[in-house]
Amino acid sequence: MDARRKELGEFLQVLRQRSAPEAFGFPAGSRRRTSGLRREEVAQLAGISPTWYTWLEQGREVNVSADVLARLAQALQLTRTERAYLFEMAGRRDSAASESPADDAPAALLASLADIAIPAYIMGRHWDMLGWNAAAAVLFSGWLDQPHSQPPNLLRFVFLAASARSLIVDWETRARRIAAEFRADCRTRLDEPALLRLIDELTAASPDFAQFWKQHDVLERQGGERGFLHPQRGLIHYQQVTLHPVEHEHIKLVMLQPA
Fold this sequence. Notes:
Elements: H1 3-18, H2 39-46, H3 50-57, H4 66-75, H5 80-90, H6 107-112, E1 120-123, E2 129-132, H7 134-139, H8 154-160, H9 162-167, H10 171-185, H11 193-205, H12 207-214, E3 224-230, E4 234-243, E5 252-258
Antiparallel strand pairs: 1-2, 1-5, 3-4, 4-5
Domain HTH cro/C1-type: 36-83
Pfam families: HTH_31 (PF13560), MLTR_LBD (PF17765)
Protein name: Helix-turn-helix transcriptional regulator
């Protein structure tokens, strides 16, 4: 039996058994031989065949669609993490995961930026800057220390702002890597309208971005040394650390530790 199908079946079984029948409109009663929902009740809630649902739990080789998975996720009232795991084990892409382009950085995380002494900022799913501290505003003077009508975007800064080319040491190498990191980061969301608009904008406005993007390089975002030629402080180097908050997989907390 395929390991993923087995894991999917066991996962569904655990989800079903932990679900209180009365919370889903079914009587609890003393005639239930086991705790949780029955298979036919889950099938009823999801609008699928009880036999077909049983095959899913048994790990049989059945072709489960994204629509069925979405109905199961809704029927079993799954959390976002549980839903993502369900789709991952079934080898399907969850379109609903890319239908909410708005970023929602945790308020506590945004508030914590003020307590970080080194440059730190929070980026959203399209690399918009959702928040930053005073040290980051000083480092990126002329950009983050200016008023903005909408969240500033790191890609727009790197590829469209003339000041970025003098601030970032070895700009071409870093810009090429940033384009590759961005492609890897949004690889499952390349059909999002807002993302496509950003890519089109950058492609039209920056020949460098258009060239790098067309090369289809893919790199995971990593730490490492970052050099800046600051207009007041001169040449400075940092070690970059990127963290992903739990339950907010598209949000990044980036900190720059002086090297």
